[in-house]
UniProtKB/TrEMBL annotation:
Keywords associated with the record: Sugar transport, Transport
Name under which the protein is recorded: PTS sugar transporter
Organism the protein comes from: Paenibacillus beijingensis
Coiled-coil region list: none
Pfam families: PTS-HPr
Residues of the HPr domain: 9-69
InterPro entries, alphabetized: HPr-like (IPR000032), HPr-like_sf (IPR035895)
């Protein structure tokens, strides 16, 4: 897996939605639409939490789940 590809695809996928999509990794919160933020945070073997809020949150959650799974990244979508 190329983590560069994962970062770019995750960011591009997130950018298709109006919802706020925030990745929580330990005590850091990263805007998933920020490629730079993802580069410094996204490392294999970690478990992440994804917080999605907004008008298209359901679609965004589905798409983000798929793109994380594609790169074998462990993500837990937090539903409020």
């Amino acid at each position: 897996m190329s983590s560069n590809n994962a970062v770019v695809e995750i960011s591009q996928t997130a950018s298709q939605f109006r919802s706020s999509i925030v990745l929580q990794a330990e005590n850091k919160y990263i805007d998933v639409k920020s490629i730079l933020g993802l580069f410094t945070t996204l490392v294999g073997g970690h478990s992440y939490e994804l917080h999605v809020h907004g008008p298209d949150a359901d679609e965004a959650k589905q798409a983000m789940t798929e793109v994380f799974a594609k790169y074998n990244l462990d993500v837990n979508i937090i539903s409020d």
